[in-house]
Design goal:
Elements (H helix, E strand, L loop, with lengths): L1 H16 L6 H8 L1 H5 L6 H11 L3 H10 L3 E4 L5 E3 L4 E3 L5 E2 L6 E3 L4 H15 L5 H13 L6 H8 L5 H18 L3 H10 L6 H10 L2 E6 L8 E5 L7 H10 L9 H10 L5 E2 L2 E2 L6 H13 L9 H9 L2 E6 L4 H51 L6 H18 L3 H26 L8 H23 L15 E3 L5 E3 H23 L1 H11 L1 H6 L4 H26 L8 H14 L4 H21 L4 H18 L10 H4 L1
Helix pairs in contact: 4-6, 5-6, 6-7, 7-9, 8-9, 9-10, 9-11, 10-16, 11-16, 13-14, 16-20, 16-23, 16-24, 16-25, 17-18, 17-19, 17-23, 18-23, 20-21, 20-23, 21-23, 24-25, 25-26
Length: about 650
């Protein structure tokens, strides 16, 4: 008691000597000491309201610490402090030495903490930290209520971040759409949602348009009817009759199995209700016997088909909106239809961007193979390994040059040089001896691909190696809530365009391109004009391999870099070349576009099974080749003859 007296005396003296405002929060807490110490869901709202109305700057900190269970109470004096060693004052935040005072930890339950969190949202909406303001908006969207409209609108004037301001205005409209005071306010808020594509806006409108099934002898006059259902069209007759039974408006019908069981249980002298058992071989006779038993009170009565039809005809089936205001539901339905159409259009645009991105990847992977196959007629199964070599070259450059941007710039020409040299060596050592022998060429290049994979495993190991993109390629270009594309995919698309222009320039504007086209069209005539087909074959194979190496650097930024990564693209590369037209740059572009669009379209229709999508795509391509064996853009010359 003596200790408590001195503590009280200290509190009085401190209150007399300090400014009055310094103790305002503690004084307010003492007014509700019992509710603060042992808060309940029913009583905490009173405490929170008084704290919010006080306007004290210390309230936000107290609510945060209270919610986090970091408030303690001195059992002797009843004063509240923030947990710590030593404890701190709730008003000044300064440390307080209470000696060996007995402190009781305040532990609000989940319901109380949720209520405190709702109050904190109002502070967080104007918090200097933009992350906390976003968290507050997320919290409101998860648990919306009408009392959040006022603090949200009050925070709009001081909002400096344009993105958060736009989000706040959207959340205000969503809240007003559901909890607005008048029909005019709600309809106006719903109309404001028409331009958005967010999931939250659609969820709000769907909640307004929530319906429940109803049935009765007539349509209720005061109900907000969503639609009237016709048995046999909008719902089956069995389902409709089941609704009548559930509503207590009809007797449940007896199933055929139950009728058989009842008849079997009432066989007397080889007959049921006077009908011989051997005559009960049709549904009509069994139903007749069952009706006779029901007339005798031996089994529950049943309902005939005609009677069931009459009962259905005598009742109306409908769906009613939970929202009673028809103007609100009409506006919500109209706006939701508009949003769904916009979402569908944007999903189509997003799918088109994905298809374009995938097509650019396939084009980069296949363009080198298209040149090689078109000029030389060589089926190079090791083409995917040149892609892999390019990706690993990019990885090595990043180990040597820490700057990711600089290492990427250096990696592109180095990858071309490495894979160009490897391609020339492969052509000189293996391919040149196997011209016009496609089976042997296929087997030889397949063996080389396996050897290159094993060599990569021996050098780099079996784990995937990171090929990190520069910081300026992080993230995505976000057009809206539906349409977005990563910067890496955009970079690969731009690189594909650059290579398209570069290949067209080489083939159409340079001497090498002229000689390549001459050898492609007529190698014998080209040789008679002084062109060395053997040299052109070597340079062409090296060029195709070098382009594959550059493609590997680009693909490595997007996909994992492993020794098997080439196998992931060799099949698509061959399909791209064959479908587009062997040896034709424009054909390769058309083939990549077709396959990329087809694959993304199938994946969109069947997103849960990518293997099935691949299977459907291959089947479609097989059918396509049956009707157009030379591809989209047929090539004349040696490649066409092959």
């Amino acid at each position: 008691m003596l200790r408590a007296f001195f503590a009280f005396l200290l509190l009085v003296l401190t209150g007399l000597s300090a400014p009055a405002k310094a103790q305002e929060l503690q004084t307010l807490l003492q007014k509700h000491a019992d509710e603060v110490a042992k808060p309940g869901r029913q009583t905490v709202s009173v405490v929170i309201n008084d704290l919010m109305l006080s306007g004290l700057p210390q309230v936000q900190v107290f609510l945060e610490r209270w919610q986090a269970r970091e408030v303690v109470q001195d059992t002797a004096t009843g004063l509240f402090y923030y947990e710590g060693d030593p404890v701190t004052d709730v008003d000044s935040g300064e440390a307080v030495d209470l000696g060996d005072a007995d402190l009781d930890a305040i532990k609000p339950n989940g319901g109380v903490r949720k209520a405190i969190g709702g109050a904190l949202v109002q502070f967080q909406l104007s918090d200097p930290d933009s992350a906390k303001r976003r968290e507050a908006l997320d919290a409101i969207a998860r648990a919306p209520s009408g009392d959040q409209i006022a603090p949200l609108e009050a925070s709009l004037a001081g909002e400096t971040d344009p993105d958060i301001l736009l989000r706040k205005q959207g959340v205000v409209d969503m809240l007003k759409a559901r909890y607005g005071e008048t029909t005019k306010i709600r309809v106006a808020a719903i109309e404001n949602l028409a331009g958005g594509l967010s999931v939250e806006a659609r969820a709000t409108l769907n909640q307004i348009l929530t319906t429940s099934a109803g049935v009765g002898t007539e349509i209720p006059e005061n109900a907000n009817i969503a639609r009237i259902l016709t048995p046999g069209t909008d719902l089956t007759e069995v389902e409709a009759y089941g609704r009548l039974v559930d509503a207590g408006l009809a007797t449940a019908r007896i199933s055929n199995a139950a009728i058989k069981e009842a008849l079997a249980a009432n066989i007397v002298g080889g007959a049921v209700a006077g009908i011989p058992v051997h005559d009960l071989d049709t549904l009509e006779r069994r139903f007749e016997a069952y009706t006779a038993l029901a007339d005798q009170g031996l089994v529950p009565p049943t309902v005939t088909d005609d009677a069931a039809a009459e009962i259905l005809a005598a009742h109306s089936f409908f769906e009613t909106y939970a929202e009673q205001d028809p103007e609100v539901t009409a506006a919500a339905a109209r706006v939701l239809d508009s949003i769904e159409r916009n979402v569908a259009l944007n999903q189509t645009a997003d799918l088109a961007l994905d298809a374009l991105s995938l097509a650019s990847i396939y084009f980069l992977a296949a363009i080198g193979l298209a040149i090689t196959f078109g000029v030389m007629g060589v089926i190079n199964m090791a083409h995917g390994e040149f892609i892999m070599m390019g990706a690993y070259t990019g990885y090595v450059m990043q180990q040597l040059i820490p700057d990711y941007t600089l290492s990427l710039i250096v990696a592109l020409p180095v990858a071309f040089a490495v894979t160009f040299g490897a391609g020339v060596a492969m052509e000189r050592l293996v391919i040149r001896w196997l011209y016009h022998r496609p089976l042997e060429t296929l087997l030889a290049t397949f063996g080389i691909s396996i050897a290159l994979q094993q060599l990569a495993k021996n050098i780099f190991g079996t784990q995937a190696r990171p090929l990190t993109s520069p910081g300026w390629l992080d993230g995505a270009l976000v057009v809206n809530e539906v349409v977005q594309i990563s910067y890496i995919r955009i970079a690969i698309f731009v690189l594909a365009l650059i290579f398209l222009g570069l290949i067209l320039f080489i083939l159409n504007k340079t001497r090498l391109g002229l000689e390549v086209r001459a050898v492609t069209q007529n190698p014998g005539m080209a040789a008679s004009m002084g062109i060395n087909p053997d040299r052109i074959n070597m340079l062409t194979f090296g060029l195709g391999s070098g382009i594959a190496g550059i493609a590997g650097v680009a693909i490595g930024l997007y996909a994992k870099v492993t020794s098997e990564m080439g196998a992931d693209y060799i099949v698509q590369s061959f399909m791209t070349v064959v479908v587009g037209g062997v040896g034709n740059v424009w054909g390769t572009l058309a083939g990549a576009s077709m396959i990329g669009t087809l694959q993304k379209g199938i994946e969109f229709l069947n997103p849960s099974n990518t293997l099935a999508a691949q299977t459907y795509m291959i089947l479609f391509i097989i059918l396509f080749i049956q009707f157009r064996p030379k591809g989209i853009v047929a090539l004349k010359g040696r490649a066409a003859e092959a």
